[in-house]
Specification:
alpha+beta; Rossmann fold; four-stranded antiparallel beta sheet; 4 strands; binds adenosine-5'-triphosphate; binds magnesium ion
């Protein structure tokens, strides 16, 4: 369960005030709003990329407000994919496992598992990121 408890953030002239909501385990939650209404800012606060001015973030009963992004285990997928263009598709998939120091065997198996997923294998054939179709970049 993820709970936002009175999250507030001022950025220039834009302010998010007292954002409160809860997402249960296994639930899907859609954040809908006009362009500029603060959706990305809320997601970046949850991921730890932006530090709120006040409020709390509770994940499965524990506050994660003081944790850096890499210790939260929360992913964020942007409209414009953030991939390493100098690495292959496989290397991009393997990267988060490599920095978490998983064994080479585990990384190889996991990367192959995702690369061989039917939808990915059929449509996303390029080895280099620059040749990958837009939807395939999002999948990576
Ligand atoms: N670091 C910052 N400093 C000042 N203003 C910022 C900063 N980051 C975002 N903003 C402003 O905060 C507001 C919310 O931006 P945000 O990107 O969260 O909107 P959004 O709802 O995700 O929009 P879109 O639907 O277009 O993606 C915008 O007015 C934006 O210009
Ligand atoms: Mg946005």
């Amino acid at each position: 369960m993820l709970k936002l408890d009175k999250i507030s953030k001022k950025a220039g002239v834009f302010t998010l005030s007292d954002i409160d909501f809860e997402i249960g385990n296994g639930d899907y939650y859609f954040l809908i709003g006009q362009s500029g209404s603060g959706k990305t800012m809320i997601l970046e606060i949850i991921a730890g990329i932006i530090k709120p001015d006040s409020g709390n973030l509770i994940l499965n009963g524990n506050s994660i407000i003081g944790l850096p992004p890499q210790k939260r285990n929360i992913g964020i997928v942007y409209q414009k994919p953030s991939l390493f263009p100098h690495m292959t598709v496989r290397e991009n998939i393997a990267y988060p496992l490599k920095i978490r120091k998983y064994s080479k065997n585990h990384i190889g198996e996991k990367s192959t598992f995702w690369l061989m997923k039917p939808g990915f294998r059929i449509f996303c054939t390029a080895e280099l990121i620059i040749f990958l179709a837009g939807r395939c970049k999002e999948s990576v």
